[in-house]
Amino acid sequence: MRPLLCLLLFLAPGLAAAADFAPPSWIRPTGRDIGDLQTWETSVSGAAEPDEIRLRLAVDFMRVAVEWNGRVLAVAEPYDPPLSVPLRPVEPENRLRLTVTPTEGPSALAVELETLAGEERIISHPTFPNTESRGAVSLDRWRPDRLDEVSPFAEYNQWKEAAESANTAVSHIDPPLPGFSVDRLRAAEPGEDSWVGLAIDDRGRLLVAMEQHGILRITRDGDGTIHHVERVEETLEECRGLLWHDGTLYAHANDSKALYRLRDTTGDDRFDEVVKLRSTEGRVGHGRNDIVLGPDGALHLITGDSVLVPADAALRTANEPDTEKALGHWIRSGPGGHPWEVLCRGLRNPYGIDFHPDGEPFTFDADNESDVGLPFYRPTRINHLVSGANYGWWQQDGNTRSFPVHAPDSVPTTFDVGRGSPTAVKFGTASSFPPRFQSALFAMDWAYGRIIAVHLDPRGASYAGAGEIFLSGRPLNVTDLDFDGAGDMFFVTGGRKTQSALYRVKFTGDEPAAVPLTPQRRERLAFSETSRSHRRMLESFHGRPNPDTIDVIWPWLGHDDPWIRNAARVALEWQPVDEWVARVRPDAGDLGSLTALLALVRQAEPGSVSIPVSSALDADIPVRNRTGQLTLLRSCELLLRRGFPEIDDSDLPERIATRITPWARSPSREVRHETIRLLALLDRPEAAGLGIALLRDASTQQDRLHYLEMLSHLDRGWENEADRLAFFHALVHARDTAHGDRSLPAYLEGIQARALSAIEPSRQEEYLALWNTPRREEPLPEARAFVRNWSLEDFDDKDFNRLDELRDSERGARLFQAALCSRCHAFDRFGRPGSGPDLTQAGSRFSSRDLLLAILDPSRVVAEGYRNAVVSLRDGSTAIGRVMRDDFRESTLHIAPDPFSVTETISVAKGQIVSTEFSPASPMPPGLLNTLEKEEVLALLAFLRSGGR
Fold first, then answer.
1. 381 close to 365: Cβ distance less than 8 angstroms
2. Contacts of 371 (CB under 8 A, 6+ apart)
3. Domain boundaries, the chain
């Protein structure tokens, strides 16, 4: 074991070195009452060869604070997904401390420590002292709650290939997961249109909805061979949802704008009765989608945000201020189309809906692809549908933004899929697949031609999600699926007038061994069943004003489970405010009182909120309580946006700013975001300096753009000219290097216009020139003589201790150019955006040794976003370089072969790509310091460590 981890024993009996694929064990403290703190601490020595350690945590019903050298880096709350935290040794002796707080439920923790290169790995082990082992963590519970990002080489427009082909529906299908086989049974013939919906009747016949109008029926022989195809309906337009139940076919016809019932009343096997059950107004784009029979015997429909809800529909969602329309819904209807009840809102375009074996509904909601790359982009995602929830898409004309996923007046995401175009979903309950897939949700992505298996693990009142690609193809624009009586999966492709086909997926492998039911999972399942019953009890109060229920609701407002807490808050918002406003006392800072405050701000009329909000500002909300801080931040934001007149002449804005300003340095990314948002809304002068500091520290494009946008709203606080200059340099960097979609240019131009308007007219031209200056390649510096092939061993602690005395911005800038750093990197106002990351904050994130090693050996660790792609093409040629622009909805990729000239790119047609891989070699060449004297190397290092200050 190398020096880095030789002392990383973490109470040595408790973490054990593990084989590559050995899962960690769930462990929990023994001999402690629920709520007691326990601290686990270890020492990590600095090493001669620095490296990064990755700490991964999975928590069940437990709060865990991660401290590194006395600073809280992250907090995992009791219902969070697995957490990954980078730890970088910067001291001779580094201290790692985990402080755990069990909460209600089977509390447990799993831990993994791994070097960045994955060469060493240590995991929580059953022999951890003062704990009991709860069994190994399952792979699905250990995975992130998101699918891997779509490759930039993937073809979003593969469906066009199906539109161009009259003879075949697919050119390639990747093998499905092991043990499964897939066969194409039939392609659509001329006159059979494109296929968008599928259901299977009680005789095993397939009913296929055609895109333009009509429904086909496909009959199979006993061996599964198709022998007859007929039209059984001619008029219904684009039935995105089909449901066969009890001899009746229900059709949710999008272009016909209605729900229909089709029956054979004469016994001749024809649908002689076609009844319109319910019409709906609105457009057809994000329209009338799937329909499924619920465990309650009712019809459950899903609609996109183009559909208007009938005026007589009952609502489960509480009325919200400043919302013009109620769009994007899960709807429950009786078999006759009445009554019509809206159970949730705030969806965008969810195409499919189905029920988990536990009786819980799920959907696959769309993104706004134009927002890709922007800080408020919300990926396509699997949502657990619950009563009364708002899933966050705004329903205001001219405002397409969703509010943040972490907003406390919404519910969490179950599983993020990423870019794509969602179509149908179906649980494998009726399948003959192995048990793991019988409880999986199969979700179809039309754009990238994939079926994703999402594994849902009960966790409290909802579920933890993990996913994998079940099968994929090109073109394979999948639209709907179902299972027949034998348990085989059938799916169809189509949409947008493309060539369609019918496929079957069978399980042909050996039955896998059953997954052991560990003590942790057994207790979690039992606890989750109880939690769901609590949530459903609270949901029974939705839509029903009854002051007698307030005493029942109140204790649940502070529950750690966000799904129970949401159900309680919605139930409270349905009750008359006058009956409970006097109970809102948030000065204690407990989550229940803060949730009650949020409900009050959302529902109260002017004059009743200033005293409770003022009380909340005196509350002690610790840094480890992310949800409490976000709840207060959201309450204050809504208070200001609603414009209650009583705050205009009060000291509330000043007190809000004073209270939240320290939170700008929270370990929580979400709290930092919302703090700056609120300070910008208040136009606080301190927000400029804080925002610039956060902008410098930001490591992702979304974070940088968020802070740039918030800073652009500030009129005050720009007395420090260096801050203003740093803002515009960062904005230009974003303009030249940010990846995104069609909304990105206008978004950046809006930031630039707002920021300019806050500058006195005499200075605007100066900053406008900075924005308008075109990118240009700098001339190469004069050649310098070779000095030495430097290595890390040439520098010792005495050298690194001298950096402060060598700090000289003018000399550092010259060396930054001489070593060619300025050709690829921006650093404060020096250099320019190029093929490498912005280095302004590198000195605050990395030790001096780390920085020097990264320059001397650039290929040792290459950040994922800065690797060269190696692209093999059909003509036998190869393109190598960095992907500089990924217009994912276009069929062209732009690659910069020369890291020193990233403005010169070549275009590659995605359809010509045979294979791709990322090079392990950095585009940054080694030996860039070999023409510098040792004193110059140290001076350059001091310059980089300064952060431009």
1. yes
2. 377, 378, 400, 401, 741, 743
3. 3-137, 159-225+283-507, 792-863+926-946, 868-918
Distance CA 16, CA 112 (A): 10
Tokens read off for 720: 């420090």
Query: What CA–CA distance (Å, rounded) separates 580 from 100?
Result: 35
Cα–Cα distance measured from residue 440 to residue 433, given in angstroms and rounded to the nearest whole number: 10
Straight-line distance from the first to the last Cα atom of the chain, in angstroms, rounded to the nearest whole number: 39
Residue 96 in contact with residue 88, Cβ under 8 Å? Answer: no
Q: What CATH number was assigned to the domain covering residues 792-863+926-946? A: 1.10.760
Which pairs from 525-532 meet CB under 8 Å and 24+ separation? 525/458, 527/61, 527/105, 527/106, 527/460, 528/458, 528/459, 528/460, 528/461, 529/358, 529/458, 531/105, 531/460, 531/461, 531/561, 531/563, 531/564, 532/358, 532/360, 532/458, 532/461
CA atoms of 628 and 559, how far apart (whole Å): 11
Yes or no: say if 56 and 102 are a contact pair by the CB < 8 Å rule: no
DSSP for residue 3: G
Find out whether 7 and 44 touch, Cβ atoms under 8 Å.
yes
Q: State the fold for domain 3-137.
A: Jelly Rolls (2.60.120)
Mean pLDDT, consecutive 10-residue stretches, the chain (949 aa), reads 33 44 84 63 61 87 93 95 88 85 92 72 72 89 92 81 63 84 93 96 96 96 86 96 97 97 95 95 94 96 91 85 72 90 94 97 94 92 97 67 88 96 97 95 96 97 97 93 96 94 94 85 97 98 95 97 98 96 91 96 87 90 90 94 82 93 95 97 95 90 96 94 89 85 91 93 86 67 87 88 85 87 77 71 75 85 78 86 73 79 79 82 87 91 79
Q: What kind of architecture, by CATH, is found in domain 159-225+283-507?
A: 6 Propeller (2.120)
Q: Which two tokens stand for residue 208?
A: 């296929």
Q: How far is CA 125 from CA 25, 31, 109, 813, in A?
A: 5, 18, 11, 50
Dihedrals phi, psi of 904, to nearest 5 degrees: -95, 110
Which amino acid belongs to residue 627? T
Q: Are strands 329-333 and 340-344 parallel, antiparallel or unpaired?
A: antiparallel
CB 14 within 8 A of CB 127: yes
Q: What is the pLDDT of residue 17?
A: 46
CB 839 within 8 A of CB 825: yes
CATH number of 868-918: 2.30.30, 2.40.128, 1.10.530, 3.40.50? 2.30.30
pTM of the model: 0.91
Phi, psi of 121 (to 5 degrees): -145, 135
Report the DSSP pairing between strands 489-493 and 501-507.
Answer: antiparallel
pLDDT of residue 153: 79
H helix or E strand, kind and range, residue 895? strand 892-896
Contacts of 813 (CB under 8 A, 6+ apart): 830, 943
Q: SS in 3 state form for 592-612?
A: HHHHHHHHHHHHCCCCCCHHH
CB 412 within 8 A of CB 436: no
Predicted pLDDT of residue 399: 54
| Tokens found for residue 291 | 């329909």
Those residues whose C-beta lies under 8 Å from the C-beta of residue 159, and which sit 6 or more positions away, are 446, 447, 475, 477, 495, 496, 498
Q: What is the residue type of 396?
A: Q
Provide the 3-class DSSP secondary structure of residue 817. helix
Reduced to 3 states (helix: H, G, I; strand: E, B; else coil), residue 183 is strand
Q: Which pLDDT does position 552 carry in this prediction?
A: 98
Residue type, 62: M
Distance CA 210, CA 195 (A): 5
Q: Is residue 366 within 8 Å of 423, Cβ to Cβ?
A: no
